[in-house]
Design goal:
The complex is a heterotrimer of chains A (305), B (365) and C (231). Chain A has 305 residues and is an alpha/beta fold. Chain A has ten helices and 14 strands. The relative contact order of chain A is 0.13. Chain C has one domain. The chains are: A alpha/beta (305), B alpha+beta (365), C mainly alpha (231). Chains B and C meet through helix 7, helix 8, helix 11 and helix 17 of B and helix 2, helix 5 and helix 6 of C.
Chain lengths: 305, 365, 231
């Protein structure tokens, strides 16, 4: 396989898990050096996608590459440079923290002992404590520690802060960002906690029911989705310079509607003038609101223009 | 039944008929007489086979032979089986006969013409050497070779004197020679008997005592020491006459033990087990060959010891010495057995490791 | 890597190892505990042969326990080898940067190495056992041969169950179901054919049983000479 521009590439990947869930023709690209936020509601297929490109599931068709290596053929070589934090804790409970770290370190030649020790102190983990006796937060920290201390080129984090208290979440995210700033690694982070990703990701992919409904730079995603209050809107919007995600009557406003649009730019107000409507208000949506509206628009029977 | 008689008789006679066709020269009177004699022997045999079939109860016969039959000549034996089982029957009987052929060999006239009816899961032995009908049913175990080997052994030994048959048990020679000699060696080493200990130490005369073939009248004192007699009393589960058992076992009074043993048959107290005794007989037969077998069948009046010596064709000391050497050579060799096992175990481990590495990566749901 | 895999398995099996080691050490000693001179013999008797018979027969009574112990031992170690992975859903193992076959082989090697511990205890126990009483003339102890057989029996049980546990639960159930169906179904079929087809006289149980326990079958080691004390 030739050199790739993306740390993770999925091309037309299909996978079926049981009768009720399917991933069909999934194409996903995670650029090198990016912090890629993988958004989607529960059950959308985020973990399945991660398991596909880490070589734990076998796709029925399509091509997958991880750090330039074909998957699943070269999964061990690719995973040697990948720090993986799974959704559910996967460590051996009989081992102590120190033993678990030693076990993990033995598989990764790039392991940094000194930094592992530093992280151990920062995360305030007791090295003699049994893994099975750690709290959920401590377990999460240990898994992150192990993933970071192996100095990966790619960090794959599946709901890394799920169920963690805010203090622990902050510690975890800080550790990740510190590493990325120094090492320039690629990060793939999947979560349904949208607001968390908003602060750290520079790319976003949105998965819903096994389909990737959006994949674009974070800024474009955030800036591009607006809520516009319109008076005298046209019955049929016709050709719009933006993507109309939804429109709904505005309560209390005669002949007024609220439009949710994507890909908005300032000069597009001319469109409304052209159709005899008036723009009353343009409101920026945060990532979460935009995410919700995007999902609403892609699901069956949305309110469309 | 008449039809069966006819078929059997025809089958038996046919080879003879073929041999008559090639005659071109005029036979002499003596040749004719000889031919008539041989024909009558064959006809007698066919008649006997038919009688055996008659003698078998009707329902057994129907079950065993219902329909067409095959007859096979295997060694000296005639095997009658339902059509379709011929190849199976031949295989079993040939393998079993091979065990005995070496020492029966040319002396097979003694057992010539014995008839078997073989019906897969059971075998009926029908005819003894005197032409008398003896019908014995034996239901065969799944190990057909072993079962038929035992039946043949029983047939061959049928004319042996009862005492020899009792002494040696099942006449089933060299079923598993290695194991038999191993256990013979073990019994020679561990049997609690003064006679056996002396035999192990090389006192050849005492080996006859160990085999229960000498000094049967004073067996309890000759074959065993006082403490060993207590074990014999315990083992034989003798009746407790006037508290003698307790006196023998608990108070360790030898006179009490002797009182319990004096009326016991010597055969019950023979030190060496049946399997070990069989190895002596097998050794004697291997030394004596077919002539030895003939002597075994013919010599009915002498003692077992004398008969064994005559079977072997060598002196008593030579026979016992030969047997003892064979048993000592058959001593269990744990080392070579373990060496063989090591290789097979290693191979199986490699196979299992190979199977394990096929374990799937696609296990997550 | 292997060292860490070994350590992980050791950690999870070590609590079971104590009773196993005690059993392995103690069973030979238990078998010979009554092999001092039998009480109903007086010292002046020529007791050599008497004791030899007693020793050998007593050992034969205890003999069956050793292959059973070996089978149990191998099974425990095999199940333990995979229990942590099964418990954690195999995600950790699958995320490690080494091919699956290598991981399996190292795990198997680690389990086999750990088996040496109870086998060593058995060897020591056997040595102590044969030294603990007067061995009758004509008999001798074979502690090392005995321990070798025990090791082979344990390893084979370990290997068989390890291979079964290395697959998915679905595969294990499938293998067991298919295996048992073939054997029982085959036995029914061959029994029927044997009863109804004259030239057919073969039954699957017999053949399968003999193939398993006669040389060079995998379980022949369980049925051979387990004599710690022999001639």
């Amino acid at each position: 396989m030739g050199p790739k521009n993306n740390a993770i590439e999925l091309k037309d990947v299909c996978y079926r898990a049981g009768p009720s869930f399917e991933i069909r023709d999934l194409t996903l690209n995670v650029p090198y050096g990016s912090i890629y936020g993988f958004l989607g509601p529960n059950g959308s297929g985020k973990t399945t996608t991660i398991r596909l490109f880490t070589g734990m599931h076998q796709a029925t068709s399509g091509e997958i590459s991880l750090l330039g290596r074909p998957i699943p053929k070269s999964a061990p070589q690719a995973m040697a440079r990948t720090g993986y934090v799974p959704e559910t804790p996967h460590l051996y409970e009989a081992l102590t923290v120190a033993e678990s770290i030693r076990y993990h370190a033995s598989f990764f030649p790039t392991w940094d002992d000194e930094w592992a020790g530093e992280l151990l102190g920062r995360m305030a983990l007791d090295p003699d404590q049994r893994v099975g006796r750690l709290s959920k937060g401590e377990t999460g920290k240990l898994i992150i520690l192990q993933a970071l201390a192996q100095k990966p080129d790619l960090l794959v984090l599946d709901e890394p802060t799920d169920g963690l208290d805010p203090v622990v979440r902050r510690d975890v995210l800080t550790a990740i960002l510190d590493y990325v700033s120094v090492a320039g690694a690629t990060v793939f982070i999947s979560s349904h906690l949208v607001h968390e990703l908003e602060r750290i990701c520079d790319w976003v992919g949105v998965l819903d029911q096994g389909d990737l409904v959006a994949e674009l730079p974070m800024q474009s995603f955030k800036n591009g989705i607006k809520r516009i209050r319109v008076t005298d809107p046209p019955d049929a919007p016709g050709d719009t310079p933006f993507v109309l995600l939804s429109r709904a009557s505005t309560n209390g406003l005669a002949s007024g509607e609220t439009w949710i649009v994507r890909g908005w730019q300032a000069p597009m107000t001319q469109y409304f003038e052209g159709v005899g409507a008036t723009v009353r208000e343009i409101v920026d949506l945060d990532l979460e609101e935009g995410f919700v509206e995007l999902l609403r628009s892609t699901r069956p029977n949305p309110t469309r223009g | 039944m008449c039809r069966l008689n006819l078929v059997l008789a025809t089958l038996l006679v046919m080879p003879l008929g073929a041999s008559l066709d090639g005659q071109t020269t005029r036979p002499t009177e003596s040749e004719l007489v000889a031919r008539i004699d041989s024909l009558s022997v064959i006809l007698d045999r066919a008649d006997s086979v038919a009688k055996i079939a008659d003698a078998v109860r009707r329902e057994e016969r129907q079950r065993l032979l219902g329909g067409q039959i095959d007859t096979l000549q295997v060694g000296p034996f005639l095997v009658v089986t339902p059509v379709g089982q011929g190849s199976l029957a031949r295989r079993y009987f040939e393998r079993a006969w091979a065990r005995y052929a070496a020492f029966v060999g040319t002396e097979r006239t003694a057992i010539e013409g014995r008839v078997f009816l073989y019906g897969k899961s059971e075998s009926l032995y029908g005819l003894d050497s005197r032409g008398s009908i003896r019908v014995t049913t034996r239901y065969l175990s799944r190990n057909r070779d072993r079962a038929i080997g035992r039946i043949l052994g029983g047939v061959i030994a049928a004319d042996l004197p009862e005492d020899l048959r009792t002494w040696v048990g099942d006449f089933y020679i060299r079923a598993d020679e290695t194991r038999e000699l191993e256990w013979a060696y073990r019994s020679l080493t561990t049997t609690a008997s003064a006679a056996v200990s002396d035999c192990y130490d090389g006192v050849l005369d005492r080996c006859w005592d160990a085999m229960g073939l000498d000094h049967q009248d004073e067996w309890a004192t000759t074959w065993y020491s006082a403490s060993e007699r207590r074990l014999v009393v315990r083992r034989l589960n003798t009746s407790d006459i006037a508290g003698a058992r307790a006196s023998c076992l608990d108070a360790q009074r030898d006179d009490a033990c002797m009182a319990l043993l004096v009326d016991q048959d010597a055969a019950a107290g023979i030190p060496l087990p049946l399997g070990t005794r069989m190895t002596l007989l097998a050794n004697a037969l291997s030394l004596g060959g077919p002539a030895g077998y003939r002597r075994m069948a013919a010599d009915t009046d002498a003692s077992i010891k004398d008969r064994l010596v005559r079977i072997s064709g060598v002196s008593a000391d030579s026979l016992i010495s030969s047997w003892r050497t064979e048993v000592f050579q058959g001593r269990p060799d744990g080392r070579s057995a373990t060496r063989k096992l090591r290789w097979s175990s290693l191979l199986w481990l490699l196979v299992l490791a190979g199977v394990s590495t096929r374990s799937t990566r696609w296990r997550l749901t | 890597m292997f060292q860490q895999i070994l350590f992980t398995q050791w950690k999870s099996v070590r609590s079971a190892l104590i009773p196993i080691a005690i059993a392995s050490f103690g069973l030979p000693l238990l078998a010979v505990q009554d092999l001092a001179l039998p009480k109903d013999l007086s010292a002046g008797d020529p007791i050599r042969a008497l004791q030899a018979e007693f020793i050998f027969d007593t050992w034969q009574l205890w003999l069956p326990f050793f292959p059973i112990l070996a089978a149990i031992l191998g099974s425990i170690f095999a199940i333990n080898a995979w229990s942590a992975d099964h418990h954690a859903g195999h995600i950790y193992a699958l995320a490690l940067p080494l091919p699956r076959w290598k991981y399996v082989i190292w795990k198997m090697g680690a389990g086999a190495l750990l088996l040496l511990i109870p086998v060593t205890f058995l060897s020591v126990g056997s040595l102590v056992a044969v030294a603990s009483f007067d061995m009758a003339e004509g008999l001798q102890g074979y502690p090392f041969l005995f321990a070798q057989r025990f090791l082979m029996a344990s390893l084979l049980a370990f290997g068989a169950l390890f291979a079964l546990a290395s697959g998915t639960t679905r595969t294990a159930v499938l293998v067991m179901t298919v295996g048992l169906s073939v054997i029982f179904g085959g036995q029914l079929l061959t029994f029927y054919l044997s009863e109804h087809i004259l030239a057919f006289d073969w039954q699957l149980f017999d053949w399968f049983g003999r193939a398993m326990v006669e040389w060079p079958g995998p379980f022949e080691v369980y049925f051979g000479n387990w004599n710690l004390i022999d001639v």
